[in-house]
Amino acid sequence: PEEQEAGCSAVNAAWFERLGLGRQLELALEEQPSVAAKIGRCLVACARSGRDEGAELFVSPEDGGAGPRQRVVVLRLRPETLTVPERLRLLLRREFLHVADMLDPAFGYEPRLRAPALAPAKAWALATSAILTERNRHRHDLLAGAPPGEETAQEMKEILSEFWGVNGREDLLQTLQALDEGGHRQGFERLGAQLERLSDEQIKAYLASQGYPDELAHRIEVVTRWYRPLGAKSLLGWDYARYVSLCRWGYAAGYLGEDEAWARILPVARRLQRTFGSWRELGDNYLIGRQFWSLQQTRDNGRLYVEVYQKLLADPQSPWNRHAWATSLEDR
Question: CA 253, CA 265: separation in Å to the nearest integer?
Answer without folding.
Answer: 16
